[in-house]
Amino acid sequence: MIAIANREARLASALRKRDAQATPMRSRAEAIMDVRIIKKYPNRRLYDTEISSYVTLEDVRHLIIEGESFEVRDSRSGKDLTRAVLLQIIAEHEDIGQPIFSTKLLTTVIRFYGDSLQGVIGGYLERSTQAFSDQQQQLRSHLGNLVGQSPWGLLNQITERNLDLLKGLQQGLINGLGVGEKSRPDSKATGKSRTLRRPSERQ
After folding, report:
1. Which of 30, 53, 78, 200 has the maximum number of C-beta atoms within 10 A of its C-beta?
2. Which phi and psi angles does 198 have, rounded to 5°?
3. Do the domain assignments include residue 183?
4. Which of 113, 114, 131 is nearest to 169 (CA)?
C-alpha cells in the first residue's frame, strides 16, 4: 500500500518539477511548498504529508535512495528534525552488515568538535564523499573486473584525490586567515639567535 502511495507521490513530484521548469519565476513560498514534508510526532511516529500515511525509517531511507527531497519537521513546533532522523537511520544501518564508520573514524570525527577546524572538516567530508559517489560507478566496474586481483590500487588513487581536496581546503583556510610565509618572523631580520645551549653551558 505504501509502495503504491510512494509511486503516486513520485509522479506528483515529477509533475511539480515540470511545472517549475515551465514557470521559473516562482515565489519563494511556492518553492518551499514543493518540498515533501514528513511530520514527526511526540510518539516518534513519522507522518508523510505527501501520501497522507505513517511511514517508517526504512521508508524514509528509500526516499533518499530514490533521490526524493524532503524535510522532517516537528509536528508541534515545526522545527527541522531532518538531520536527527538521518543520523538515526545511519545508526540503525551501522549494525547491519559491514559498517561504514569504524571506531577509529568516529573517534577522529568526535575530536574535531570544539576544535578550530570543526567548520572545515564538515566541508571536507562532504566534498570527499561526493567525489567518491561520483567515482562509485567506475569503482564498481573495476571491482567487477578484478578476478583474483587487489582493489587497493584504485582505492589508493581515490584516497590521493581526497587528500588533494583536503590540501585545497587547508590552503583556502590559510589564505582566508591571511597566514602565510610572509607573516612568519624572519630570524635574520630580528637579529635574534636561537642557538641551543647545553645544560652545562647555561650555568
Report:
1. 53
2. -70, 155
3. no
4. 131
Beta-carbon contacts of 49 under 8 Å, excluding residues fewer than 6 positions away, are 36, 37, 38, 39
Record the pTM. 0.57
Kindly state whether residue 196 falls inside one of the protein's structural domains. no
Residue 33 has pLDDT above 70, yes or no: no
Domain of 9, in residue numbers: 2-93
User: Which positions ≥6 away from 46 have C-beta within 8 Å?
Assistant: 38, 39, 40, 54, 55, 56, 57, 59, 60, 72, 85
Do 56 and 109 belong to one domain?
no
Q: Is residue 182 part of a domain?
A: no
46 and 118, same domain (yes or no): no
Q: What is the pLDDT of residues 155-199, one digit of tens each?
A: 666 667 666 666 666 666 556 555 444 444 454 444 444 454 554
Q: Are residues 112 and 88 in the same domain?
A: no
200 within domain boundaries: no
Q: Residue 29, Cα to own-chain centre: how many angstroms?
A: 27
